[in-house]
């Protein structure tokens, strides 16, 4: 028996097997295992292992949590933030980007506090201050991931209030460099970014905003503006030339079954109509198709966008108390947890 104990005690699991096992564990377990031994702590913090863990575990879509909040900041309890209100800019790979300001004028001495946090590990990092001049108007903030360089980036777009030109000033933060840089853009006055809560999100390595632009006939038309994090360039995605996107309608940028999509909402006195448009080939405007049309009884809703997090979920949905093919509709000021089995739980 003594020899067996000695044999077991001297057995060492190969490093590649340890790496494979750890990469399949939940984040909370990894957070605890960092204290087991130094080699595990170094491994779990390694960027190569983090990418491996995302591939193995990050694709799990067994459930999601939705907060339907329309025009309010969020209260972060038991955190290190000293401001009571924060706005969610976006989330990717389990990281969440928060800002204390959106769509506002900034004086030269004003602080714009942007944080990147990992809710699973409770780690929070405040970004260094970015440059802004006197009376800059903060138009948009985006958050995403550059796969080419394994780099998380934040883009900030602002305009000079007292300038005769509508030229945008664009700055990009790199987590690898932990610094901001100014970049030049083509056609800087082409788009006017709409408030982030009107539908924004990260898809296919780019952050997306709703936008407005002037047509050749000087008519204001709706469009989508994207910032590609790999190339650090802006691009335009034309919306379908369809009455669904004309007039006073709401549309929201989202993801539907791994496709770039737009949810059009028309609220009536008795019936709400939701139409899902899907871009079958990303970036090709001719590939837009109308995938779904849903009619429900009328109730006040808030479509979760930049003020809420929706981890990727493409198998089910919740319309108050039932699912419908990937569209998430939530009542105002309510939380819904939608597990894989098909039931819905509401938390007021």
From TrEMBL:
Record SUPFAM superfamilies: F-box domain (SSF81383)
F-box domain ranges (all copies): 7-52
InterPro entries named in the record: F-box-assoc_dom_typ3, F-box-assoc_interact_dom, F-box-like_dom_sf, F-box_dom, SCF_F-box_component
Taxonomy, superkingdom: Eukaryota
CDD domains: F-box_AtFBW1-like
Entries under Pfam families matching the protein: F-box, FBA_3
NCBIfam families: F_box_assoc_1
The protein's name in its UniProt record: F-box domain-containing protein
Lineage: Eukaryota, Viridiplantae, Streptophyta, Embryophyta, Tracheophyta
């Amino acid at each position: 028996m003594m020899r067996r104990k000695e044999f077991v005690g001297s057995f060492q699991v190969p490093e590649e097997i340890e790496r494979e096992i750890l990469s399949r564990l939940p984040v909370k377990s990894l957070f605890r295992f960092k204290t087991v031994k130094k080699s595990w702590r170094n491994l779990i913090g390694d960027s190569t292992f983090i990418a491996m863990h995302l591939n193995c575990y990050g694709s799990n879509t067994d459930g999601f949590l939705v907060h339907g909040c329309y025009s309010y900041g969020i209260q972060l309890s038991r955190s290190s933030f000293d401001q009571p209100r924060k706005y969610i800019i976006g989330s990717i790979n389990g990281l969440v980007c928060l800002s204390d300001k959106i769509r506002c004028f900034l004086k030269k001495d004003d602080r714009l506090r942007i944080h990147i946090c990992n809710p699973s590990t409770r780690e929070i990092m405040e970004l260094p201050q970015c440059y802004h001049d006197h009376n800059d108007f903060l138009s948009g903030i985006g958050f995403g991931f550059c796969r080419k360089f394994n780099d998380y980036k934040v883009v900030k777009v602002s305009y000079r209030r007292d300038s005769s030109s509508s030229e945008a000033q664009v700055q990009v933060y790199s987590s690898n460099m932990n610094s901001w840089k100014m970049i030049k853009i083509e056609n800087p006055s082409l788009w006017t970014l709409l408030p982030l809560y009107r539908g924004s999100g990260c898809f296919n390595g780019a952050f997306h905003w709703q936008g407005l632009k002037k047509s050749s006939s000087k008519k204001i038309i709706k469009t989508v503006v994207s910032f590609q994090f790999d190339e650090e360039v802006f691009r335009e995605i034309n919306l379908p030339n369809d009455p669904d996107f004309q007039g006073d309608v709401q549309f929201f940028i989202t993801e539907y079954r791994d496709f770039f999509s737009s949810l059009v909402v028309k609220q009536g006195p008795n019936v709400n109509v939701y139409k899902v448009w899907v871009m079958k080939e990303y970036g090709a405007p001719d590939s837009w198709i109308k995938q779904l049309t849903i009619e429900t009884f009328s109730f006040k809703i808030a479509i979760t966008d930049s003020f809420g997090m929706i981890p990727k979920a493409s198998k089910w949905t919740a319309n108050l108390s039932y699912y419908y093919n990937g569209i998430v509709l939530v009542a105002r000021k309510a939380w819904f947890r939608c597990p894989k089995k098909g039931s819905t739980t509401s938390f007021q």
